[in-house]
Amino acid sequence: MQKIGFIGLGIMGKPMAKNLLKAGYEVKAFDIVKAGVDEVVSAGALEGKSNRDVAAFADVVITMVPNSPQVKEAVLGTDGALFGAKPGTIFVDMSSINPIASREICAEVEKKGCFMIDAPVSGGEPKAIDGTLAIMAGGKEEVFNKVKDILAVMGSSVTLCGDIGAGNTTKLANQVIVAANIAAVSEALVLGKKAGVKPEAIYQAIRGGLAGSTVMDAKAPMMMDGNFKPGFRINLHIKDLNNAIDTAHTVGAPLPLTSSVMEMMQWLKANGYETEDHSSLVRYYESLSGTDVRREK
Ligand code: NAD
């Protein structure tokens, strides 16, 4: 079995690393915040002293950090993983980052005789815990084939979408759909409430029809409970939409709908909600119409 270095033990990284341990992999883990490391060490991981130290141990180095600058820091920075890695090490970046950055990091990794795939995920914390994430990968097929079994421990679907960067391009498409879907659910529930129909009744009546979605099932109950504990934070979704808009403008694909939802998320950030779950987008619509969609006690 390949030895795994795991970097980034936040909301997602912790359960993903624990699932690898449960599947019998040896894992050495590091995060710049010690609490995440301690939790995974108590589940059986070895404690890494730095990103470099983790890579020196590993055949496969997984990164699960917020965005492109953090992946660059963790892999290419001072005491970064690439400096500890032996030739042939495979870097699997599972963070959601700009696909252009994935290609840049891969080029540096290959200069050292190592390999890289990008493999961002969808499904959030519950699916990270269950090991049922949707994983979308980019990279060379022969490299992907060497880490496919490891990815299958963390996800129930693992799809190679193309060359390096293709995983993150696919993830941007995913985030565009999720953002617009959350906005539509918010808009619809607030409309119903203002027109005198209980949001719960609307949700139950339509969830099995064409308007139903995984997003609606995950987020409408949170909106009605006023439970905005993340999950997936507004500031991470802003990061993804920035990457989507940046990539789209580079390739010449206008994103009018995404740009509107981006401005709603900027309203949330300006009002102090950026660390809440992205279901708190409903607050924007509630503020526009002077109502809320909470369940009646
Ligand atoms: P998080 O902020 O909870 O965790 C990120 C971790 O990375 C933190 O513990 C942080 O200390 C660590 N980190 C940052 N820089 C580092 C460095 N240089 N070296 C080592 N560790 C470093 O974020 P998360 O929610 O776990 O998300 C991680 C990635 O997964 C993001 O790209 C996010 O967009 C993506 N994602 C998240 C979800 C979700 O529901 N939370 C779902 C799908 C994808």
Question: What does it look like?
Answer:
- The protein is built from 14 helices and 9 strands.
- Helix 2 (34-41) links the parallel strand 2 (27-30) and strand 3 (46-47).
- The strands form 2 sheets. It has a 6-stranded parallel β-sheet, sandwiched between helices.
- The protein has helices at residues 13-22, 34-41, 51-57, 68-76, 81-84, 99-111, 124-130, 141-154, 166-194, 199-206, 214-225, 234-251, 256-270, 282-289, and strands at residues 4-7, 27-30, 46-47, 60-63, 90-93, 115-118, 121-122, 133-138, 155-162.
- By secondary structure, it is α/β, with parallel strands linked by helices.
- The mean pLDDT is 97.
- The protein binds nicotinamide-adenine-dinucleotide.
- The site of nicotinamide-adenine-dinucleotide (NAD) has 28 residues, from helix 4, strand 7 and helix 7.
Please describe the topology of this protein.
Blueprint: E1 4-7, H1 13-22, E2 27-30, H2 34-41, E3 46-47, H3 51-57, E4 60-63, H4 68-76, H5 81-84, E5 90-93, H6 99-111, E6 115-118, E7 121-122, H7 124-130, E8 133-138, H8 141-154, E9 155-162, H9 166-194, H10 199-206, H11 214-225, H12 234-251, H13 256-270, H14 282-289
Parallel strand pairs: 1-2, 1-4, 2-3, 4-5, 5-6, 8-9
Antiparallel strand pairs: 7-8
